Amino acid sequence: MSKVIKILGTGCPKCKSMTKVVTDVVSENNIDATVEKVEDIMEIMKFNIMTTPALAIDDVISIKGRVPSKDEVLDLLK
């Protein structure tokens, strides 16, 4: 089943870095996933996080406030 990955952030440099890491991991490993960028602050607040960027996989927050490594993202998606 396809995973839904959401990157929560308002477009700051860290948010852009996280988006690149996640999209690279998905494409390099042929992972069946949809990557969505959530920039609407009201949408982000629904996840009850105070620090961005944040990574949600199937609506569960996995990482917040930092940019993960490719290996870390890959482990989360396996």
Automatic annotation (TrEMBL):
Instruction: Tell me one Pfam family matched here.
Output: Thioredoxin_3
Q: Which residue intervals define the domain Thioredoxin-like fold in the entry?
A: 5-78
Protein name in UniProt: Thioredoxin family protein
Q: Which organism is it from?
A: Lacinutrix gracilariae
